[in-house]
Design goal:
The complex is a heterodimer of chains A (166) and B (578).
Chain A (H helix, E strand, L loop, with lengths): L1 E10 L4 H12 L5 E6 L5 E10 L1 H13 L3 E6 L5 E12 L2 H13 L3 E5 L3 E8 L1 H11 L4 E6 L3 E4 L10
Antiparallel strand pairs in A: 1-3, 1-4, 2-3, 5-7, 5-8, 5-9, 6-7
Chain B lengths: L1 E3 H11 L4 E4 L6 H9 L5 E4 L3 H15 L3 E5 L3 H4 L2 H9 L4 E7 L15 H5 L5 E4 L6 H13 L5 E7 H5 L1 E3 L17 H13 L3 E5 L2 H4 L3 H11 L3 E3 L14 E4 L6 H9 L2 E5 L5 H4 L10 E6 L13 E4 L2 H11 L6 H27 L22 H12 L3 E4 L3 H9 L8 E2 L9 H13 L3 E6 H7 L3 H6 L4 E7 L4 H10 L15 H7 L3 E5 L2 H13 L3 E7 L25
Parallel strand pairs in B: 2-3, 2-4, 4-5, 5-7, 6-7, 9-10, 9-12, 10-11, 12-13, 13-14, 15-16, 15-17, 17-18, 18-20, 19-20
Antiparallel strand pairs in B: 1-8
Helix pairs in contact in B: 1-2, 1-7, 3-5, 3-18, 9-14, 11-14, 12-15, 16-17, 16-23
Classes of the chains: A alpha+beta (166), B alpha/beta (578).
Chain lengths: 166, 578
């Protein structure tokens, strides 16, 4: 099974996220991650959906998405030619004996400490999923207090753009 | 000039060409009904007994004509009562616009009296739905609802209008014309050429078509293709009536309760040409054992249907009428003498099976029947079989709209009725909605001005028989034929075959007198135990001009045959039950 990342341009109106996620639920398609946000045009939002499956499943998902009235454009992003990023915010215990190790990890991963208290360190990290996963594994022994990650956002390299044609 | 939202709704419906709509009033649509009262000379509203009946009536109106059916209901329970009707239309691709009132915008989200999030509820069973919170968007939203409902593969659209939007005022100018659907997609030429090549090279073609042929108006094109390439034609339940039953190439419905010849012919074909059909599990049986021996060309207007249930060797997205027409032009005129001979043999075999099954039915006794279904006192040889009922009614029904509920009677009608013209068979194929028939029959009669005949069972009829009140109030020309066997026959059949005859909750120990019931509603009614009685009843029913209920006695152990068991294949076909 491959992972696919698709960009979906939708009308920026209330309920559109329900329609898209609801379609996945009722057709029995599983989502790895789904992110939604504004675009350069106030009329559209952009949803990035990652899922695992075979090529047939991918085609079925594309077809079903294209049927939704509020979906303006759908595209499978070629992973070799796409910048894919995820943001992690993670809070770990701030203990004297491990502080320096954490600092080193932060530096090597080119991440950033965004909050510091006597009890905790909050770190921000951007990167591909594998990098985020690796960082989480690395700091796990130090005691993760809480974390959240955004799921994937993705944009094609070069001048290719996801533009509405509908 | 500024007019109210309620008036905008009515004016927009008239602008969209609606002559008859269906519904039920309530607190949050009073304004709308006030405007319907004012406009009553220009648009007719038919009051149903229950919102579900109104939704099925709008569905029946749409199926009988191809126009968009419209139903109106109030907020909360009025709206939720539409749900089964909307889902029925969705699964059978019927163009419908459902309009619901809702509580004023300021009360939304507060669990107000009769408030329900009907947009949320109907999201998975509509092509699209809207809630209009700005009066300035009301007219265009309604127009868009019609556009979506009738574009491409048709379907239902819901528009929820809070009360304050109905009260608010804004400028309105009616458009001169109804909205036109989105442009159709047409099949690419190279794909059609590939299809023609497959057809030219095949030995045993078989055309399998579905409801898309009716909504896509492709009946003539299909028959022309079949004649040119010398192919038998079968169809799904939804396709029935698109091709006349007596067409020389037509084998009838295939699938779970399809015609023997049709199902077997498909299995022995080397190429299946699927047109406007979705390979439902009821049409194919076990997916993994289907299409072992034949290639598939699949043409549909909805790209999402291609490869969805059954992977096709060649899948083509496009308008079915255009595609079949162009495809036929690309195909060589062929004769397949061996294949035709095989088809003729299958037809003969089927005729013999039907004959012997009927003979067996006349010899069967109902003496030991636990359901005590036989109240006729007649020897079996004189009682009515389901096919007798269909035959006798068909002989009297002329060009009536043929409507069914869901269950055994539906399958018997589908198997046996001699259909002549498209849009004359209305049945809930996808959702299988018991109780569909009364509303649909009323809607179809209102739309066409022709008589509707409803084949139903005592189970299905019990679900929405309250719509007899509607039929009587409208003086609807409607003949209700109840195949009364005292049981929920289809489930009972499964219990007989697969559940050791545990007749759990399928024996109806009811004492309903359907003749008195009909009379209580102001309709006419009679009972028919024998062919002679049914002949007489049918004659009277179809000439009375109003609503007439015929209660026909049927043996509780009549089975719908043949049967491909659920999850089975053609090898498992059951053609007799001992």
């Amino acid at each position: 099974m491959d992972q696919y990342v698709i960009g979906v341009l939708v009308s920026n109106i209330s309920g559109v996220l329900s329609r898209v996620s609801g379609m996945f639920t009722r057709r029995g398609f599983n989502i790895d991650s789904l992110t939604v946000g504004e675009t350069e045009s106030s009329g559209f939002s952009r949803i990035t959906i990652a899922f695992h499956g075979d090529s047939d499943l991918k085609d079925r998902i594309l077809q079903q998405l294209q049927k939704l009235h509020d979906v303006r454009e759908v595209e499978v992003l070629n992973k070799n030619d796409t910048v894919i990023r995820e943001l992690l915010l993670i809070k770990v215990r701030n203990k004297a004996d491990v502080r320096q190790d954490i600092m080193t990890a932060v530096e090597i991963f080119r991440s950033k400490i965004v909050d510091y208290s006597t009890a905790s360190l909050t770190i921000e990290l951007t990167g591909e999923t594998s990098k985020i996963d690796a960082f989480i594994e690395l700091v796990k022994p130090y005691g993760i207090m809480e974390m959240c990650r955004t799921g994937l956002v993705a944009i094609e390299r070069g001048e290719n753009c996801l533009k509405t044609v509908k | 000039m500024k007019i109210s939202g309620a008036k905008i709704v009515v004016e927009t419906l008239i602008e969209q060409g609606c002559d008859t709509i269906f519904g039920y009033p309530g607190g949050q649509v009073i304004n709308l009904f006030d405007e319907l009262y004012i406009a009553r000379d220009r648009i007719t509203h038919i009051l149903a007994a229950h919102e579900q009946g109104a939704a099925h009536a709008a569905d029946g109106y749409a199926r009988a004509t191809g126009k968009v059916g419209v139903v109106i209901a109030t907020s909360g329970p009025g709206a939720t009562n539409l749900v089964t009707g909307i889902a029925t239309a969705f699964l059978d691709s019927v163009p419908m616009v459902a309009i619901t009132g809702n509580v004023p915008c300021s009360l939304i989200g507060r669990d107000s009296f009769q408030e329900v999030d009907i947009v949320g509820v109907t999201m998975p069973i509509t092509k699209h739905n809207f809630i209009v919170k700005d009066i300035n968007e009301l007219a265009d939203t309604l127009r868009m609802a019609f556009k979506i409902a009738k574009s491409g593969r048709p379907g239902p659209v819901l528009v929820d209008i809070p009360k304050d939007v109905q009260v608010a005022q804004c400028e309105f100018t009616a458009n001169a014309q109804p909205v036109i659907p989105y442009p159709l997609t047409f099949a690419p030429e190279d794909k059609l050429m590939q299809a023609a090549k497959l057809i030219n090279n095949c030995e045993r073609p078989y055309i399998y078509f579905g409801g898309g042929v009716i909504s896509g108006k492709a009946s003539e094109e299909i028959m022309a293709l079949a004649e040119k390439i010398d192919s038998p034609i079968g169809c799904s339940l939804m396709g029935l009536s698109a091709v006349p039953t007596d067409h020389p190439h037509f084998l009838g419905m295939q699938g779970m309760h399809g015609h023997y010849a049709s199902s077997v012919a498909q299995d022995e074909a080397d190429l299946v040409i699927a047109l406007g059909a979705r390979f439902s599990d009821r049409a194919t049986g076990n997916k993994n054992r289907y299409a072992q021996n034949f290639k598939i060309i699949h043409i549909d207007i909805d790209g999402a249907e291609l490869h969805k249930n059954i992977p096709a060797d060649l899948a083509i997205k496009g308008d079915i009428r255009d595609a079949v027409d162009r495809l036929a032009a690309l195909c060589e005129r062929k004769q397949h003498p061996e294949w035709s001979e095989k088809i003729a043999e299958l037809r003969q075999e089927e005729a013999q099976r039907t004959e012997s099954a009927l003979k067996a039915a006349y010899e069967k006794s109902c003496e030991n029947c636990a359901a005590k279904c036989d109240k006729t006192g007649l020897p079996a040889s004189e009682r009515l079989t389901p096919y007798d009922i269909v035959d006798i009614i068909a002989a009297h029904a002329g060009d009536a709209n043929v409507v069914t509920d869901v269950g055994q009677h539906q399958m018997w009608t589908a198997q046996r009725y001699p259909f002549k013209t498209p849009r004359t068979f209305l049945t809930s194929g996808g959702l299988g909605t018991m109780g569909y028939g009364m509303g649909a029959a009323i809607g179809a009669a209102a739309a066409t001005g022709r008589t509707s005949v409803l084949f139903t069972g005592d189970g299905s009829f019990g679900m929405n028989l309250n719509e007899l009140a509607t039929a009587v109030s409208q003086n609807t020309p409607l003949v209700v034929v109840i195949m009364n066997n005292g049981v929920l026959g289809m489930v009972r059949q499964w219990q007989t075959l697969f559940f050791d005859k545990h007749y759990s909750n399928t024996t109806l120990s009811r004492q309903t007198d359907f003749v008195k019931l009909a009379e209580a509603f102001g309709a006419k009614g009679t009972r028919a135990f024998s062919k002679e009685e049914l002949e007489k009843a049918a004659e009277e029913a179809f000439s009375c001009g109003g609503t007439y209920v015929i209660d026909c006695a049927v043996d509780c152990d009549e089975f719908v045959l043949p049967m491909l068991p659920p999850g089975g294949s053609i090898d498992d076909i059951i053609t007799e039950i001992k």
